[in-house]
Design brief:
Among the domains are: 1-96, no CATH class; 397-519, no CATH class. 49% of the residues lie in helices and 12% in strands. It is elongated, with a radius of gyration of 28 Å. The protein has helices at 9-13, 16-22, 27-34, 42-64, 86-93, 107-123, 132-137, 140-146, 150-160, 196-212, 217-235, 271-278, 281-284, 315-318, 320-338, 384-396, 403-414, 419-432, 442-449, 458-471, 478-502, 512-517; strands at 80-81, 84-85, 179-184, 189-193, 240-249, 251-253, 258-261, 264-268, 292-300, 302-304, 348-354, 364-366, 377-379. It is built from 22 helices and 13 strands. Helix 6 packs across helix 11 and helix 15 crosses helix 16. By secondary structure, the chain is an alpha+beta fold.
Length: 519
């Protein structure tokens, strides 16, 4: 084995993935190489040296021309040898295969996936603390694509494709001049062209692959095919269920990596997923034991040319945002009922990321969520039966009658030491029993629900607190408020636990309080 070349810090900062790719080794071995803890063969040493010297040269050239040191990242994509990017040339020299073996008789799919294989290593370059902004914010991909011979085939076949060609309402001599406008149901507008569409599909495919957690050339090409077919469906005027990911905190999968639910696939945060979706170093390590991610679908459609009015969109698309919120609340409720009394903190969503083929905007949104707990719910294989049972109960029950209660409980959990939180939980308790006028009669209903040893006089205290809050005479300290909020949350969840298990038909009835009191 050969000794190591000197590896500059800025080259190490570009990440282990690009090194593992060009040397045709695993990611774990790539990390060891950057730490100079793995032996190198002569050809590996030579290739690593070439990579280091190229990066140094581009960096010096950028500085000499008055550019920032970081600008060399945008020069690297243009280093070609015989129609192939130099990173792919180096990988081939190490005996590595390129992700261009496409089993498709469709000419556009075949050409598109070949282009994806050529560009794949450029996505592996880590630039700064938020690497996704490098390939999303820079226009280098469009220029880099033009250098590959297959790019002309991609553009020609897109223009002739029965579905995608509908997007290009304006024709021009140059790829960027053959374009069209589009709009989605949320009001977002964009422009798509023969030059920009390949970039959008490739960037969103890489996002989708990274969020799912399995990163490889073959996985990237498979994801590109998935995204291309989604783009065709949308261009045909169909409703597509684009991938949607929701991150939750205060629970984690312990001895299982994935869990199938009625709402989609739940995955644990691996280091690679946490690095990508959380994008904050302080969160990455801890979220392996505090957090999970749901992959689901989001009904999506576009219109191009003459834009549709809002009421012309398919109902499924118009209801997509509501469906998303319902799914989030269902999971919050399912976890709360499944682990009732075991944990004080709510399992709650903290971010959502939707991926469509056309938009280069980062569709990731962060929520104002509940506080993180030091004692998260540990979801193990032994819990699967209970989780499945509660997910079916929650999903199969008409829960419209208590939806206000769930949203108020969730709001209260975000800031439990405030007067607003106490107002929220008292409203939730009233909503659960449809007690629109006075909550005192709830005591009689509770006598049929709670165990005899449970204190139901707390309802009287909540009634007094309500009057004090309404009149402005409430003056409890945040610590006392927090404890009252917790007591009311637990009371509400206990009642919901009873309703779902023993009287699910009452949840949608407006006379449920009267019915319980007459028992």
């Amino acid at each position: 084995m050969m000794s190591y070349p000197a590896i500059p810090h800025f080259v190490k900062a570009m990440g282990h993935r690009v090194v593992s790719y060009i040397l045709n080794v695993t990611e774990a071995e790539g990390r060891l190489i950057l730490m100079q803890k793995l032996g190198l063969s002569r050809i590996q040493r030579d290739t690593l040296n070439q990579y280091i010297e190229l990066c140094r040269h581009l960096r010096v050239s950028a500085v000499e021309q008055g550019e920032s040191e970081q600008s060399f990242f945008y020069r690297l994509p243009h280093v070609m040898q015989n129609g192939r990017h130099v990173l792919n040339v180096w990988r081939a020299q190490q005996g590595g295969e390129l992700a261009t073996r496409i089993n498709s008789s469709d000419p556009l799919t075949s050409a598109f996936c070949q282009l994806a294989g050529e560009l794949y290593p450029l996505f592996l370059i880590k630039a700064g603390q938020r690497p996704h902004l490098f390939y999303r914010g820079a226009g280098y991909l469009t220029a880099a694509i033009e250098q590959f011979p297959v790019s002309k085939q991609v553009q020609k076949r897109m223009a002739a494709d029965p579905a995608l060609s509908r997007l290009f309402t304006t024709s021009g001599k140059e790829p960027q001049q053959t374009c069209g406008d589009y709009k989605d149901a949320s009001g977002h507008r964009g422009v798509v062209s023969l030059a920009s569409l390949p970039v959008s599909i490739l960037v969103n495919s890489y996002d989708l692959m990274r969020i799912r957690g399995v990163v490889s050339p073959d996985t990237f090409v498979e994801t590109v095919q998935e995204m291309l077919e989604m783009a065709r469906s949308l261009a045909d005027g169909e409703v597509a269920h684009i991938p949607m990911f929701v991150g939750f905190r205060n629970a984690a999968l312990t001895n299982l990596a994935e869990l199938d639910t009625k709402w989609g696939s739940v995955r644990r945060y691996t280091p690679g997923i946490a690095e990508y979706v959380l994008q904050a170093a302080r969160l990455m390590a801890k979220r392996r034991d505090n957090g999970f991610m749901l992959e689901s679908g989001y009904a999506f459609a576009i219109n191009f040319g003459d834009f549709l009015e809002d009421d012309d969109w398919p109902e499924e698309v118009l209801d997509a945002e509501t469906e998303q919120q319902t799914t989030e609340l269902n999971i919050v409720l399912c976890m709360a009922l499944c682990y009732l009394g075991e944990h004080k903190a709510f399992v709650a969503p903290e971010w959502v990321w939707r991926i469509d083929p056309f938009s280069l905007d980062n569709r990731r949104q962060d929520f104002g969520s509940v506080a993180e707990t030091d004692d998260p719910v540990a979801i193990s294989e032994t819990d699967l039966v209970d989780i499945e049972r509660w997910s079916m109960l929650v999903d199969d029950t008409d829960s419209r009658g208590i939806r206000l209660a769930m949203s108020r409980l969730y709001n209260a959990a975000k800031k439990p030491d405030t007067q607003d939180a106490l107002v929220d939980v008292i409203i939730a308790l009233r909503n659960i029993f449809a007690a629109s006028e006075d909550i005192t009669p709830i005591k009689k209903a509770l006598s049929h629900i709670l165990a005899p040893e449970r204190d139901i006089t707390m309802v009287d205290r909540f009634a007094e607190d309500w009057q004090a809050l309404i009149t402005g005479e409430f003056d409890d300290s945040p610590e006392i408020i927090s404890e009252k909020v917790y007591q009311c949350v637990q009371l509400c969840l206990t009642c919901l636990h009873y309703f779902y298990l023993h009287a699910p038909n009452l949840i949608s009835r407006s006379d449920r309080l009267t019915h319980l009191c007459q028992r």
